[in-house]
Amino acid sequence: xREVDIYDFDKxxxxxxxxxxxxxxxxxxxxxxxxxLPVTGFLCLLGTLKLISWTTFKKVCFSFMRFIPRERxxxxxxxxxxxxxFKWFKERKRESVVISASPDFLLxxxxxxxxxxxxxxxxxxxxxxxxIGKNCRGEEKVRRFYETLGNGVRVADVxxxxxxxxxxxxxxxxxxxxxxxxxxxxxxxFKDKYKE
Length: 196
What we know:
Elements: E1 2-7, H1 18-29, H2 37-48, H3 54-58, H4 70-81, E2 95-103, H5 104-114, E3 118-124, E4 131-132, H6 139-149, E5 153-160, H7 167-170, E6 177-181, E7 184-188, H8 190-194
Parallel strand pairs: 1-2, 1-5, 2-3, 5-6
Antiparallel strand pairs: 3-4, 6-7
């Protein structure tokens, strides 16, 4: 049976939220998108307060993509940030599946550079930046995992920075669960953590 490890991406394999970091990077490099940021910030606040869904937020968040040289910006972003990936990820022994809410246009370049085997993330229109379908978060991560890999896969270990949001993918682990804090792997028992 095929055996894989699941990894979240943001604050798990790298010490930052890649979507937020990319918006800030582009704001500094392409100042003509700055007038769009107050709307994005306001919608982010509404998402944090759960007044709108994160999927709704992501319909607008990356709308600046049509006004910048997309491929050049993404490559420049990873040229600057690739070395910040946590070194322990290079020591992996099994097939690696990265599941993230971050946009595909950003993580596809990270996949090429960091060499993870499978990428499952939020899909976006590469031209407009608008999200396509649901944000890949919570239970959607599990649904997309099975949609992509089918049922004939055994999940060994799961790694994530968020025990709150990633309980659904932690529940798939037949091996170990790791909570990543500041790049450090902290093993925990699923049943103890979630009192099941």
